[in-house]
Specification:
Blueprint (H helix, E strand, L loop, with lengths): L42 E8 L5 E9 L6 E2 L17 E2 L4 E9 L1
Antiparallel strand pairs: 1-2, 2-5, 3-4
């Protein structure tokens, strides 16, 4: 099954072979190895209000990676490597929520 993560190759690895001589380039076009799509959703909610006539306050909540969707790295493109065609890593972090307040005067 192609397009897999971790144990199944992302592309057909049987169509490639390692380079046998140093300094020899293959005939694969640039950007031939397209990895998985990237999806990320960040959001923020804030509220400003007056404490006094001259003092204002802002309270905000920010959430990063709201859907907590894993972001997979690009497949290994070294034909001599044992992990050729496999995606073994993720990039980015997990869901993060921040709360903040700001007073201006």
């Amino acid at each position: 099954v192609l397009g897999g993560i971790d144990t199944n190759p992302w592309f057909d690895t049987s169509a490639f072979q390692p380079v046998t001589a140093n300094g020899v380039l293959g005939n694969v076009p640039r950007f031939a190895f397209a990895g998985p799509k990237f999806f990320n959703l960040d959001s923020a909610v804030f509220r400003r209000f007056n404490v006094t006539e001259r003092v204002r306050m802002e309270i905000r909540v920010e959430a990063f990676s709201v859907t907590n969707t894993p972001q997979f790295d690009q497949p290994d493109t070294n034909a001599s490597d044992i992990n050729f065609g496999l995606i073994k890593n993720t990039v980015g972090g997990s869901r993060t929520i921040e709360l903040g307040a700001k007073i201006t005067f």
